[in-house]
Amino acid sequence: MKAVIFSIVTICLIYIDSQSQTISGFVRDSQTNESLIGATVSIKDGKQGTITNSFGFYSLNLPPDSVDLVVSFVGYTAVRVSLHLTRDTVVNFKLEGIRLLEEIEIRASDEVIQETTRMSSINLPVDQIKLTPTFMGEADPIKVIQLLPGVQGGSEGSSGLYVRGGGPDQNLILLDGVPLYNSTHLYGFFSTFNADAINHIELLKGGFPARYGSRTSSVIDISMKEGNQNQFHGNATLGVISSKALLEGPLGKDVSFLVSGRRSYLNLLQSRFIQPQTEGISDDYNFYDLNAKLNYRINDNNRIYFSAYTGSDHAGATSENSYVDQNLDFTSSSVSTIDWGNAIAAVRWNHIVSNQLFSNFSAAFSQYRFETETKFTSETVYFQSNLKDESYYQSLYNSGIKDLSARLDFDYLPNPRHYIRFGAVAIAHRFNPGVLATTTVSESSELGSDTVEALELSAYLEDDWSINPRMKLNLGLHGAAFLVNGESYTSIQPRLNARYLTGKNLAIKLSYASMQQFVHLLTNSGIGLPTDLWVPTTESVKPQESHQVALGLAKEIFRSIEVSVESYYKVFDNVIEYKDGASFLSVSQNWEEKIEVGKGKSYGVEVFLHKKVGRLNGWIGYTLSWSDRKFDNLNNGQWFPYRYDRRHDVKFVTNYAFTNRIVAGLTWVYGTGNAVSIPEVSYASATNEGHSLDGYLILLNMPGFPVQSVLNRNGFRMRDYHRLDLNLSYTILSRKVSHVFMASVYNVYGRRNPFYLEFGFSGNQKAIKQVSLFPIMPSLSYSLKF
User: Fold this and answer.
1) Which of 195, 100, 118, 259 has the alpha carbon at shortest distance from 616?
2) What is the C-alpha to C-alpha distance for residues 478 and 208, in angstroms, rounded to an integer?
3) What is the rounded distance in angstroms from the CA atom of residue 626 to the CA atom of residue 623?
4) Is-contact 730 740, C-beta < 8 A?
5) What are phi and psi of 593, to 5 degrees?
6) What is the dihedral of CA 306, 161, 126, 366, to 10 degrees?
7) For the residues of 132-182, what is the DSSP string, one character each?
8) How far is CA 349 from the centre of its chain?
């Protein structure tokens, strides 16, 4: 290990330019003192510059001379300063936010798209997310990410993410650098993220820098706010199905805090206003989430952050029955509940080692749990014999994953031509793939897979290298190891991003990324309750792998609109899926016996136009793509379309400010129908069979009825999907308090989009019927900000 560290330091030191001086410091919001992530710091001619890191830190190495610096960030007024460099200098910048309707002369982009080596990466301003129409009027970052090219949302209304042909488990979702294993509330209709508590969001679909690992399809990097360091602020929002509140402010000179919470009240609405469909049966559902962050500035060179999140969903149904006649009195009750949720906590220490070297150490805990419980009790009293017969049954199923991790990262900026990052990560995993405990009056039993502990190690080195004004490279290596049950896996994953700038300021970009993933998600393909079982790589189940190459063009036009066109090709190995008929409740089998292992491929073209600021802002995205899977024991070993393969996908999102008080938003989406399996032949059945195909076609076969058989898996298409959403916000401003009223309409023209298909009858003929979920749905919300 010492040799590796020595080699890394040696590589870094060869870049040092002893004849230059360093300007370093932080770029922050002038009102809140929040870090501005990805702000640009450059000399006036734009030929040399850098961007701030995830904590707002920058370092720029320049020869001794008089320099004019320009500091800019999306939605803020640029700052220009003149300096004469004679020695290393620390300069902290505070930028003023611009009003929505102000004319701006600065570049809208935080980093001009043709200047950066990154591709397949999108930064979303949080203010733009809050204005985008989404389901039930909730400002939802994940739902907005679904509106980007290359990203599918899964089923109607859900918060699933299928990025460039990948599955939900192949997305690395980071909240303040900590992996979050489940990002949904309300059966997937809402995400776990409160937009009011978020500072920065970035989506990476490919061209992954070496500092990212552990997943094969995408990275969603979300940073929480640090808490207003200057004065107390807060807001509260009352919505149709949930309410939320946030409070932030200083705790003394060098400490700030943020706390936010959200709670649904569907259970209250159900009990007061919604009558149960069946007498004797009542339903219960609620969710909540809490975010908290503490920011302590020790001195100019050291800062400590503590952040935490917890969220939980509870769904339950209670049934009571009774029956009395002249012979007996029978009563029974049953209670079924499902609970799932996340909890994370992290402490981070930022340290400025020198003007050119920045370090961040973090230690974190992450947990995901999923539990189902069923209780049934009955009592029968026989009048004639005066005997009493009692029965009792309870089953409890639970699964989950716990992580303890430590991470050390360094940012080293020896001169303007190089931005070097290196670091290492260690994660201790504890998997509970699923245990079912049952109890009756006379006995109890427990079945399921044993708990598994594993250790994941990784290290990386990358350099963002400006060879000349036209050519830039981001070169990196990510090394990883996974140790489980005496078995070990290792991998070296090369990464490359290249950018060539033509004479017309058009960037030609190329990327390649090799990724490996040591954790797998087993989830029922059916729609409804989450059944996410996280399982490890084992001796018989190899790590998932992906290789992706992308080629694209990028340019900023009219100084405010980013335009990019990208084509990509990606292959997957060792993807897993339940065998036909298997489910998470088949606890008599080890989970490794219930899966198929196969491969996949996806390819396509994405077009994206993005305007981030101004009176009119938003984006247009179009994707043409193919996504296929292949398993030896499925579909006769032939390639078949992935269930979320979508040939054409169009997203149009726009916000328009009539005044600073009145802002309207519009979203329109269109997509080719999802792939579905439809039986083409049938044969006589001698036993009961019931199963679901790909979560869409629900079949029930009974003795004497024909069994339906699928010849071409996912060989048919549902109806095309399209939908229009609108919203309108009106703000009443006062000196210290503002009131925001928002009205939104989901699915304006009432399109009956398919949720799933099922067998039914049309007259005497068997038919396949479409089940739709959401008609036109208006909603209202009120927010108070102070």
Assistant:
1) 100
2) 10
3) 10
4) yes
5) -85, -5
6) 0
7) S--GGG---HHHHHTTSTTEE--STT----EETT--GGGEEEEETTEE-S-
8) 25
What tens digit of pLDDT does each residue of 93-143 get?
888 877 554 443 334 444 577 778 888 888 888 888 888 877 776 778 888
Report the run of H or E that residue 244 belongs to, with start and end.
strand 242-250
Say whether pLDDT at 531 is over 80. Answer: no
Q: How confident is the model at residue 451 (pLDDT cuts 50, 70, 90)?
A: confident
How much is the pLDDT for 595?
81
Strands 471-484 vs 487-501: parallel, antiparallel or unpaired: antiparallel
Q: Exposed, middle or buried, 124 (CB in 10 Å: 0-12/13-18/19+)?
A: buried
User: Residue 485, SS3?
Assistant: coil
The pTM of the full predicted model, rounded to 2 decimals, is: 0.85
Token pair 């990208």 is found at 566
Using only C-alpha atoms, the chain has a radius of gyration, in whole angstroms, of 28
Classify 121-677+712-785 by CATH class. mainly beta
Mean pLDDT rounded to a whole number for the chain: 81
Q: Which residues, in sequence order, are CB contacts of 154 under 8 Å at separation 6+?
A: 160, 161, 162, 168, 188, 644
Distance CA 349, CA 59 (A): 19
Asked if residue 212 lies in contact with residue 462, where contact means CB atoms within 8 angstroms, the answer is no
For the cut 80, the answer to whether the pLDDT of residue 371 exceeds it is yes
Residues 6+ apart with CB under 8 A from 70: 40, 41, 42, 43, 44, 46, 78, 79, 80
Residue type, 761: F
442 pLDDT more than 50: yes
- Report DSSP state, residue 297: E
How far is it, in rounded angstroms, from Cα 439 to Cα 447? 12
The domain segmentation of the chain, as residue ranges, is 121-677+712-785
